[in-house]
Amino acid sequence: MKNKYIIYLFAVLTIIIFAALYMIDIPSPSIVITEKYTLNLK
């Protein structure tokens, strides 16, 4: 019986974590970095 409770607890915790990550607004990076590379091939 204890294994069922552990599985249910784990499932509920993962659902809560995914919902919290979905609710948190993660800002996109505002600075675009572009670099030019020159290759000197011989």
Describe the structure.
The protein has one helix and no strands. It is mainly α and 42 residues long. It has one domain. The termini are far apart. The model has no long low-confidence stretch (mean pLDDT 85).
Provide the descriptors you would attach to this structure in a database record:
1 helix, about 40 residues
Quick synopsis:
52% of the residues lie in helices and 0% in strands. By secondary structure, the protein is mostly helical. It has one domain (1-42).
Give the topology, please.
Layout: H1 2-23
Helix content: 40-55%
Question: What number is the mean pLDDT?
Answer: 85
Radius of gyration, taken over Cα atoms and rounded to an integer in Å: 23 Å
Q: Which residue ranges are poorly predicted, with pLDDT under 50 across at least 5 consecutive positions?
A: none
